[in-house]
Amino acid sequence: QVQLAESGGGLVQAGGSLRLSCVASGRTLSDYPMGWFRQAPGKEREFVAGMSWGGVSTYYADSVKGRFTLSRDNAKNTVYLQMSSLEAEDTAVYYCGARRSGRYGSVYSGANEYNYWGQGTQVTVSS
After folding, report:
1. What is the pLDDT of residues 4-38, one digit of tens each?
2. Where are the beta strands (DSSP E) in the chain?
3. Distances (CA, A) of 46 to 41, 54, 60
4. How far out from the chain centre does Cα 34 lie?
5. pLDDT tens-digit profile of 58-104?
């Protein structure tokens, strides 16, 4: 089993930046495809960014391309989501997810394709 814990959310003005962290325990994080999702009130959990196991591939939702960047620190067993040029529309609870397995180089964009989730961290962007 993989346990995930997100942190780094908060209140930020439009145009600002935040870095979210996802720390994994139980197994080596790099062994699993990873994804970041977000969920606003009354809406479904939507894909933000994903990384294949081993970090060979990444993919970003159109809404965040050029603004959000995934990175990983294997020594700390942590995945990061660097968010810049934040907009009010980015306001949501952000979740880190891990999938049990995946094809080499494949990124998974469906929330139902992930098996493990953190508790989420709130990101609020004010204008």
Report:
1. 999 999 999 999 999 999 999 987 777 889 999 99
2. 3-7, 10-13, 18-25, 34-39, 46-51, 58-60, 68-73, 78-83, 92-98, 116-117, 121-126
3. 12, 23, 11
4. 7
5. 999 999 999 999 999 988 999 999 999 999 999 999 999 999 988 88
SS (H, E, C) 90-104: HCEEEEEEECCCCCC
Burial label, 54 (beta-carbon count in 10 A; 0-12, 13-18, 19+): middle
Tokens 């439009």 belong to 14
pLDDT at 55: 82
In this structure, the chain runs to a length of 127
